[in-house]
Automatic annotation (TrEMBL):
Protein name according to UniProt: Inositol oxygenase
Keywords associated with the record: Ascorbate biosynthesis, Cytoplasm, Iron, Metal-binding, Oxidoreductase
Pathway: Polyol metabolism; myo-inositol degradation into D-glucuronate; D-glucuronate from myo-inositol: step 1/1
Cofactor note: Binds 2 iron ions per subunit.
């Protein structure tokens, strides 16, 4: 049985599978990845109010993030890091750099990032064996977190991780810990605090400034290094943390037709990004040859970062 998705299905988790070479609009309701009942701490996923050992750390993260992520800040960061003049290295070298980092914005996991990358990629690979670009997207989607590394300026976590959102227009109330936006100077600026702000209806997300972090940075790295990933792969990399859009349907008035098509793939991807997090370890050396073959297929040997 197949279904055609005309628009995002919000707050509904379904098992989706695309036939080999298939259209993402034709999604087969099939078996596959089973969404777990609880995260690594035994709590509900993305529950920012649960009394877990991560609650205070996560809320403090979002307080600073929402206050500091202004239109001016994002413009400055994009200009600086968009030059891609920090270093030159391959994709797997970057993966290994992430071993020492834990994401302070994540209420569901406190393991090094390489574990999350491999868990995501392997879960996708099992359900979508013929979509190798999607496997690789799962592996690399968080590589922009190297911004935390000293050689990249050692940016604070609030400028690297967490849910993303547009700057330059009104913040949507569905955002996690929305209350802290009231302390952001853009919240009170009439140029930026309306529904459209500096944008126009259907302008396309490529023309929208997103809060600065690992998503946008890795998107710039992939695009400027001429990756041959399809448009949907680049879309997933840039917007996988844009939960107000792909979970709640906010900001759809800024999307164009290509965005809406790519959003179907992001809904496929998001289940694996979010729910594959666990304390189950992946045998890195066993799976590395496969992912190296994909890296060589879609990326140059060395990239500018």
């Amino acid at each position: 049985m197949t279904i055609t998705i005309e628009q995002p299905q919000l707050d509904v988790v379904v098992e989706r599978k695309v036939t080999a070479g298939g259209d993402p609009a034709e999604l087969v309701l099939d078996g596959g990845f089973v969404v777990p009942d609880a995260n690594a701490f035994g709590k509900t996923f993305r529950d920012y109010e649960a009394d877990s050992e991560r609650k205070e750390t996560v809320e403090d993260f979002y307080r600073v993030n929402h206050i500091q992520q202004t239109h001016e800040f994002v413009s400055r960061m994009r200009a600086e890091y968009g030059r891609l003049d920090k270093t030159a290295m391959g994709i797997w070298e970057c993966i290994e750099l992430l071993n020492e980092f834990v994401d302070d914005s994540d209420p569901d996991l406190d393991m090094p990032q390489i574990e999350h990358l491999l868990q995501t990629a392997e879960a996708i690979r099992k359900d979508y064996p013929d979509q190798d670009w999607l496997h690789l997207t799962g592996l690399i989607h968080d590589l922009g977190k190297v911004l935390l590394h000293p050689s990249f300026g050692e940016l604070p976590q609030w400028a690297v991780v967490g849910d993303t959102f547009p700057v330059g227009c009104a913040y949507d109330e569905c955002s996690v810990h929305f209350k802290y936006f009231e302390e952001n100077p853009d919240y009170h600026n009439p140029k930026f605090n309306t529904k459209f702000g500096v944008y126009s209806e259907g302008c396309g997300l490529d023309n929208v400034l997103m809060s600065w972090g690992h998503d946008d940075y890795m998107y710039l790295v992939a695009k400027e290094n001429k990756s041959t990933l399809p448009s949907a792969g680049l879309f997933i990399i840039r917007y996988h943390s844009f939960y107000p859009l792909h979970k709640h349907g906010a900001y759809m008035h800024l999307m164009n037709d290509e965005d809406k098509e790519n959003l179907k793939w992001l809904h496929v991807f998001n289940k694996y990004d979010l729910y594959s997090k666990s304390n189950v370890r992946i045998d890195v050396e066993k799976v590395k040859p496969y992912y190296m073959s994909l890296i060589n297929k879609y990326f140059p040997e060395k990239l500018r970062w």
